Structure formats: C-alpha cells, structure tokens
Amino acid sequence: MDYQKSTWRLIEHPPAQGAWNMAVDEAILESVYNNQSLPTLRLYAWQPACLSLGHAQPFAEVNTQVLVAQGWDVVRRPTGGRAILHVDELTYSVIAPQSEPRVKGGVLESYLRLSEALLEALRSLGLNPQANEKAANSNSKAPNPVCFEVPSNYEITVKGKKLIGSAQARRKDGLLQHGALPLYGDLTRIISALKFPDAAAQSEAQARLLDHATTVERELGQAPTWAQAIHAFHDAFQRVLNLELQPAQLTEQEIHRAQELMHEKYAHPSWTERI
After folding, report:
1. Is 50 known to be catalytic?
2. Domain for residue 258, yes or no?
3. Which of 33, 87, 121, 166 makes a 20 to 30 Å CA pair with 225?
4. Which of 27, 95, 117, 147 is labelled catalytic?
C-alpha cells in the first residue's frame, strides 16, 4: 500500500523494569491521542527478566515462588493475549492515532498493515517470515497460559513457528500495538514461571512450546546484536510505511505521567493481581 510521507518519533530505550515499560507505553498513548506527541515507534528491552500477563489473564496462573527465586518481575499488560517472559528480546511498540492511515481500521486490518514492516525487518535479518491470518490449532480446548505456544490471528511465524507475538489496545482515538521478538535464549524458561497441574503437564507444555515457537538464533544459527535488530526495525518501518523516523526522547509530561502510571497502576497489586 502506498502512503504519503509522514513523520513519526523513534524512541530507543535501554532495558528497564516491566512496570516502567508498560507505564511508558500507556503514557505515550495518552499523549498521542491528546495530540500532544507525534505517532511513535518505540524500541526497548527489559531488566530484570519480566513475566507479562495479558489484560484478562488470571494472576493465579503465576508461580510467584519461582519469580522470587529467579529475581524476575511480573507485570500485567494493557493489551490482551497470554503470558510472555520478556528476556533476550527486542520489544517494539507502535502508538498512533486511529486516524493514521497505517493503523486505520479494525484490529486485523491495522495489524496486517504494520506486519508488512515487521516482516521486512525479519527479512533484513536473514529470515523468511510469514504473517498468520488464521489461528493455528484453533480447535484446541487445552488450557494455554503461554503466549508463544500457539500462533494466533496476529502473529508472525518462521517455518510455522511463532517468532513475533503482538497485541493491541485502543483508548479513545489512539492505538497501541506492542510485540516481542525473541533474539536468543531458552524459550522454555517461561514454563517454570507458570503453574501447571503436575510435572507431566509442565513437561508437555515445554515440549509444545519448542514445537510451536522459535528465536532468531534458532533459525539463523546465530543471534543478531541489539544494534542490528534495532537497525532492521528502523529501516523497515521507514521504507515499508514511508516514514521519516526522528530520534526523540520522552517529553517531560510523558515522563511524569509514566511515573504516575507505574506507581499507581503497573507496579501495584491492585492492577497486577486484579483477576
């Protein structure tokens, strides 16, 4: 699809705590839908490793003892989906007004537009990705707390295995889509952070995860550097979506709002453990 040239912000953030990362995404969303900031592509990471739950996922699925023992954080996302362990990855977020042509329309329509840039970023890293339009294993009734175990409508796969998981939230006239690209590491670490009925169920979930998800390193035999992954996303979004990405920082207002959201919402049990 041809787009008129548009200017967005590009924000690259060093690794940060999960509650801060989610607070920043929401603060930018508020700023964008209030016409106080340009549409934004944000690229970031997590430190320490953080288990993020989908908006409506029960907190009872979390093995809190393992999180404490490992020193991992937990946060609830503003978007849907299932649990993700954020570690050894590049996370992206796109925040734009719903009137922006690149995200206009329904969830699937806007996702597929943005996925063209995601697909091109992966191709530039040497992969051959595909965008799923129909859920795989959609007839399965097995409980599935793990986001990366089964491709859904809004995922990008390589050789049938999920590589980028994405989810959306819409507030007023703004859209937030964020997703995770695992660069390397053991994907099954997440299994220990979730509760299963018994050891057999845990082992089966671990095997299914390896069958249905992958990392860049597993597909290429080596992991890209953080700088290579950043450049791939930067270049692909500019070329595919006809954008001028201007390097920027959060505004003072966004920083203040993110601090409020972190303390009052994303780092608070009333949000994290609400269901």
Report:
1. no
2. yes
3. 166
4. 147
